[in-house]
Every structure is written in C-alpha cells, then in structure tokens.
Write a structure and sequence with these properties.
Layout: H1 5-25, H2 27-30, H3 34-63, H4 71-86, H5 90-115
C-alpha cells in the first residue's frame, strides 16, 4: 500500500539514518574482507536511494505533486552517500559510485515507465492528390 509524500519522506529519512549509523557502527566488520567492502559500497548506494527518495518527497510535499527532482538534488544526494561510504573505506566510495549510478538509471527507467503518459501515434494522412 502506498503512503503519502510526507510519510514517505519520514520513512526514507529514518532508513537513511539507520543505514548511515549501521555503516559507522559496523565499520570494523565491513573492512575485514573484499566482499564486505563491496557490501559497504552497496549499503552506500541504498543510502543514496533513500536520500533521493527523501528529497523528492520533501519537494513534492512543499512544492506540489508535479515538482520533479533535478540534477543538483541528485548530485547532492550522491555526494552525501559517497562521503558516508568513503568514511568506511575508500573502495566503498568507488563501489558506492558504481552501484548508485546503476540505481539512478533503474529509478529513472521505472519513473519513465510509471509516470510518462503514452502519446498516441498520429495516423498518416492520405492526400487525395494524385501524382
């Protein structure tokens, strides 16, 4: 069941804070092996997704449902998640960047599929003129 923008803002903000604090608390575990370092980058990309969701829902609540995220909000969200991942390990920074780019691609693809109205194709017009 879908929730409204204000509730979604609160939930995604809480999840962002939980992921950030979890990454900081379990930093010694996340840097033990290469797999866990990559997992730390994945957690950073999840944090990016929740930050983008929080910012988008905050703007939808403040400015109306038709307001869309622009590039500065995406870059700011990316910077915050990359800094958080970089605080764990520098390879987490790199994997977070890769996973976040993949995440934003699929978020955009899903958004286009969900919210863009299909425009019917114009029927070809036949002229009565003979050549």
């Amino acid at each position: 069941m879908a929730v409204n923008s204000a509730t979604s803002f609160v939930l995604s903000s809480i999840l962002t804070l939980l992921i950030f604090s979890g990454m900081q608390m379990y930093k010694p575990i996340l840097i033990k092996s290469p797999i866990t370092i990559i997992f730390g980058g994945y957690l950073g990309s999840l944090m990016f997704m929740f930050i983008v969701t929080a910012v988008g829902n905050l703007e939808a609540t403040l400015f109306g449902k038709n307001f869309q995220l622009k590039l500065p909000e995406i870059i700011l969200s990316m910077a915050i998640s990359l800094i958080a991942a970089g605080m764990v390990h520098r390879i987490c920074f790199t994997t977070c960047l890769i996973f976040s780019l993949i995440t934003i691609y699929y978020m955009n693809k899903l958004s286009q599929k969900t919210y863009v109205a299909a425009v019917p194709a114009a029927a070809p017009v036949k002229s009565r003129r003979h050549k």
